[in-house]
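Handoff note, outgoing to incoming analyst
You'll be picking up this chain. Sequence as last confirmed:
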Amino acid sequence: MSKTYVKVNVNIDELGKITPVYIIFNDTHYDIDRVLDIRREPNLEVGGIGMRYTIRVNGRVTYLWEEQGRWWVDSQV
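Most recent structure output, in case you need it:
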């Protein structure tokens, strides 16, 4: 596994809560159907610690990470 950095469009509400709306991964646009969970977590497989967003995209649950202003997903090399 490795970190694959992605482009993310987010909404920020009046309280500063960040909600990702869609990601661009390998030049493909993916709408986020729903954010299921947000928590600060370490990533034990590829290293680092950041905000882990559990998201549903096209009915599939996966993780989106934000670390120091950069967004990434786990991917196979």
